[in-house]
Write a sequence for this structure.
């Protein structure tokens, strides 16, 4: 530093032959001295500017990847591709892929703006969305029904979104919880997630919600989640980019229909608040109510809760409560209140499992959606399987995680293991609702075990 100053001074004495020259040269020397000091911080300024630009573009710049940033700056100057070395082992291939996916995710937000233009109205002919709500009980096969809709390329499908409010179900009054459910569903059907940040956090961050994310083709396909091979080990939810409310709204608006599957709606009359019958509607909603033989439902409950001490009393209480609620819903739907007329259909799981192509065609016709070749191809592959796992939605072309058994064996398997005495208890408590739904009463053990004798009208 002192040497540089001395050289400047000597050069100054030589050149200062006149006052005019001295002033000029002195000014030049001051300029170069300032440039020398400021050049030491130039690299830091350039790095800060790049960091600002990266944050502006929505990328996550992680502390452990600061070394990667310096490499990228050097590559930009030298136009080389040397970005991975042993000393930068923390910048893994997975992290770079996630950063790239987050950058591509903005594409959805930009594309979503186009759905607000009238050009789409001219193409599709109507501004009103056709949405579907699938309601059911546990063990009714609603995941299989939901997947039939999920396979349609124009459907934005959500699997059990009401579970994001599970805490409030137990810790709030019933009317408060019902209001929260209505608010959630209304936001989903309007593709408006601005006030549903808790739901986007639920579906993005909680490991327990992995089935909700991966059960939706629209939310688990690239660029939101990286594609992986058919033999990939257990999938990690952290490989999918985090969803934001505006991103979810844009993805929803890129599809013409929204389908929600839930087992959390207890009573159909609570859906009246979602059916706006006054003034112009933003969307049209239809309800698909999936039911199943009460004897099969009780059998599934017992098989999934083998550690419980089932008694005649507990069995009778479970059957009575389940069939009472089901009967109330069916009677309410049959009464056909104005807001539900033409918007509700009842579907038996036994019909869906044994005649999937025919029922799918009828369903699409009812809800007003054109059947798609992709759905038919999927049903061709799965016509002999009905036990579905949501993990498969991430790779629809690959093998679905299902149990390999025929529809009839799975649907009526309860007939081969349930004691006749248990069947009689269920039939006694559920006689009225079974009669309404077309399920036959068995007379003895022989008829129960004879699977060639149908128990469905």
């Amino acid at each position: 530093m002192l040497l540089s100053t001395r050289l400047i001074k000597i050069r100054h004495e030589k050149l200062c032959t006149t006052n005019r020259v001295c002033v000029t040269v002195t000014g030049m020397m001051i300029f170069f001295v300032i440039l020398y000091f400021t050049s030491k911080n130039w690299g830091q300024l350039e790095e800060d500017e790049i960091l600002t630009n990266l944050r502006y573009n929505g990328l996550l710049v992680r502390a452990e990847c600061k070394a990667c940033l310096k490499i990228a700056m050097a590559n930009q100057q030298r136009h080389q591709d040397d970005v991975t070395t042993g000393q930068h082992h923390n910048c893994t291939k997975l992290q770079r892929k996630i950063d790239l996916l987050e950058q591509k995710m903005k594409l959805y937000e930009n594309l979503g703006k186009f759905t607000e233009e009238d050009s789409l109205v001219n193409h599709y002919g109507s501004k009103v969305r056709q949405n579907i709500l699938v309601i059911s009980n546990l063990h009714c096969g609603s995941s299989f029904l939901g997947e039939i809709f999920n396979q349609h390329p124009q459907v934005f499908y959500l699997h059990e979104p009401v579970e994001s409010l599970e805490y409030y179900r137990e810790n709030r009054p019933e009317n408060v919880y019902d209001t929260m459910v209505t608010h959630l569903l209304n936001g989903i059907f309007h593709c408006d997630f601005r006030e549903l940040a808790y739901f986007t956090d639920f579906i993005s961050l909680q490991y327990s919600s992995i089935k909700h994310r991966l059960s939706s083709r629209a939310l688990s396909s690239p660029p939101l989640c990286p594609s992986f091979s058919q033999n990939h080990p257990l999938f990690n939810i952290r490989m999918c980019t985090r969803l934001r409310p505006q991103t979810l709204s844009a993805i929803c608006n890129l599809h013409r229909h929204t389908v929600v599957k839930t087992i959390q709606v207890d009573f159909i009359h609570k859906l009246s608040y979602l059916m706006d019958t006054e003034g112009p509607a933003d969307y049209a909603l239809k309800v698909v109510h999936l039911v199943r033989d009460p004897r099969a439902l009780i059998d599934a409950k017992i098989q999934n809760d083998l550690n419980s001490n089932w008694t005649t009393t507990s069995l009778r209480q479970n059957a009575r409560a389940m069939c009472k609620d089901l009967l109330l819903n069916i009677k309410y739907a049959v009464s056909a209140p104005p807001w539900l007329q033409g918007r509700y259909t009842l579907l038996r799981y036994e019909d869906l499992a044994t005649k999937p192509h025919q029922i799918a065609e009828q369903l699409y016709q009812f809800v007003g959606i054109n059947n798609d070749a992709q759905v038919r191809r999927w049903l061709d592959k799965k016509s002999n399987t009905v036990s579905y796992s949501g993990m498969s939605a991430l790779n629809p072309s690959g093998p679905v995680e299902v149990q390999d058994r025929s529809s009839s064996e799975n649907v009526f398997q309860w007939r081969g293991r349930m004691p006749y005495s248990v069947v009689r208890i269920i039939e006694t408590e559920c006689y009225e609702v079974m009669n309404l739904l077309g399920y036959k009463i068995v007379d003895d053990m022989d008829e129960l075990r004879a699977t060639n004798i149908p128990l469905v009208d």
Notes: The radius of gyration is 32 Å.
